Amino acid sequence: MQATVTKNNKNNLPGSSSPEWAALLQCASPHADLSALSALLRDVSWPALFTLACEHGVISLLASAVAQFEENLAPPEFAHKIRQLHRAQVLSALKMTAELFRLVDQFRDAGLDTLLVKGPALALRAYGDTGARQYGDLDFIVRQKDILRATEIMISAGYRPEIPVESISPQKIPGQYVFARIEAPLLVELHTERTMRYFPRGLPIEEFFARRQYVSIDGHQIPTLAIEDELLLICIHGAKHLWERLSMVADVGAFIARQTGLNWERSFATARAAGAERMLHTGLLLASNLLRATLPQNVRSRLQADRSAAQLATKIATWLPSGGQAPPGLFSRALYRMRMRGGAVSGLGYLLRLTFSPTQEDWPAGVEKGHDGQFPALRRPVRLAKKYRGGAKS
Questions:
Q1: DSSP helix/strand/coil, 318
Q2: What is the DSSP string of 199-268?
Q3: Where does the pLDDT of residue 370 fall: very low under 50, low under 70, confident under 90, or very high at 90 and above?
Q4: pLDDT digits over 89-113, tens only?
């Protein structure tokens, strides 16, 4: 018998009290209760569960959970759809991983320092498989001073830059440097200490490079962040996007479950230096509260002492089931940004910096091609007000 589905947003996704949401939380948990999950999967509306998993980017986690049961709990139609989407995700990951090897070799041959972030490295570290999480591009960190040379390397590798070479300027910093491969639908994003605006005190790029580690993917040694820095980055990334998808919380839970050698004191010290303690605390609380991720007692004590982080995590849990389809409005969003940074003064400073730091979306038409543009910093708050006035996906 199928359950009555409670809805919580304009796209009719199941709400936080629905069996579909409870089942998806079990699928995303690093410590799933299989007996509880089995009971839930017998009670769900499979069309609603399938839609919810797609919205939250966790089809692979649903596929893995369903595969643990000998009997077919999913109706044939949805079992086929889940397998189909999971297979497509794995094939996409294989293609991107092959391209990753080619690009890393080109960067290495050119003597350009890069760090792979998220994508295949995070999938391997969190889930043990590069195809176990959904990602649509490859992300690298490079130094801002190297971005012109990196762009030239990407062009020679067959990519078209969103920001042309002649438009690269210290005065015009985009949200990221995006490259589209000409011969295939594949995107690469390069991030620098200047584009990572959501780091409250700036990306400590030299420290990240100094602490770099390598992950082995099919025998290829790929430079990436130290695990403590990766944890901080994915928590800041989740905070940037208001933790609007369960996949972001699942990544944190799976990461800390698998990376048992993580140095917690170093993680907190790095977060403190970056002004991102509350972002780290909130991400850990979400993973612990929603997905039962296990934390050391001293870490739990530290998180419990941050009452604002606990309040934020509780608030985020109310809008998370909507999958970004019913986000907070302009005022709530601004208050969230301030609270995520910390105190009133630092929070206001952080909000103002984000509000008046233009990206390419704020440049006047033609400026990315070298044409002069005036007052992009003033265009940005107007654009953001229009975009989020009635609530919109981040």
A1: helix
A2: STT---HHHHHHT-EEEEETTEEEEE--HHHHHHHHHHHHHHTTT-SHHHHHHHHHHHHH-TT--HHHHH
A3: very low
A4: 999 999 999 999 999 999 999 999 9
CA distance 248 to 257: 15
pTM for the complete prediction?
Answer: 0.91
Query: How far apart are the C-alpha atoms of 333 and 38, rounded to whole Å?
Result: 37
Answer for the pair 65, 44: CB distance below 8 angstroms, yes or no.
Answer: no
At residue 3, the pLDDT reads: 46
Return d(Cα 194, Cα 152) in angstroms, integer.
Answer: 19
Predicted local confidence at residue 275, as pLDDT: 95
Kind of pairing between the strands at 220-224 and 213-217? antiparallel
Question: Please, what sign has the CA dihedral across residues 239, 245, 249, 250?
Answer: negative
- Please choose, from the candidates 236, 172, 248, 180, the residue with its C-alpha nearest in 3D space to the C-alpha of residue 208: 236
56/111 Cα distance (integer angstroms): 38
Q: How many CA atoms lie within 13 A of 32 on its CB side?
A: 24
Q: Letter for the amino acid at 284?
A: L
Q: What single-letter amino acid sits at 291?
A: L
Q: Where are the beta strands (DSSP E) in 113-191?
A: 115-117, 137-141, 159-161, 177-181, 187-191
Taking alpha carbons only, the member of 58, 64, 75, 69 closest to residue 24 is 58
Per-residue tokens: 199:
């780091």
Residue 187 has which token pair?
A: 């995107």
Which position has the token pair 């403590």? 228
Distance CA 302, CA 299 (A): 5
Non-local CB neighbours of 208 within 8 Å, separated by 6+ positions: 115, 141, 225, 226, 229
- At 49-94, the pLDDT tens digits run 999 999 999 999 999 999 998 888 899 999 999 999 999 999 999 9
Each residue's pLDDT tens digit, 205-245: 999 999 999 999 999 999 999 999 999 999 999 999 999 99
Token digits of residue 293: 């991720």
